[in-house]
Amino acid sequence: MLTGKQKRFLRSKAHHLNPIFQVGKGGVNENMIRQVSDALEARELMKISVLQNCEEDKQTVADQLVQGTNAELVQIIGNTIVLYKESKENKEIVLP
């Protein structure tokens, strides 16, 4: 589990990132979870935007992604979800 200090640190690192994935009408599916998981392994920290035509609310989408990828939810801001998962092979982010 991330501490408040670690979440603040990750939020500042995520600030300049652009969303890589978009969750739209189809919601979250197995294929998306696999792709998000692979991207997290490569990048550790990423943003996902929830489009307006998504039928589920952003909290539900975030919960599904967190459960599917075993990542940590850093924050939900507007329609953007920020996820963090420590990489096994290319660990770059050192948490405070």
Automatic annotation (TrEMBL):
NCBIfam families per record: RNA_bind_YhbY
PANTHER family: RNA-BINDING PROTEIN YHBY
A Pfam family hit: CRS1_YhbY
InterPro entries given in the database record: RNA-binding_CRM, RNA-binding_domain, RNA-binding_YhbY, YhbY-like_sf
Native organism: Heyndrickxia ginsengihumi
CRM domain: residues covered: 1-96
Protein name stated in the entry: RNA-binding protein
GO molecular function: RNA binding
Keywords: RNA-binding
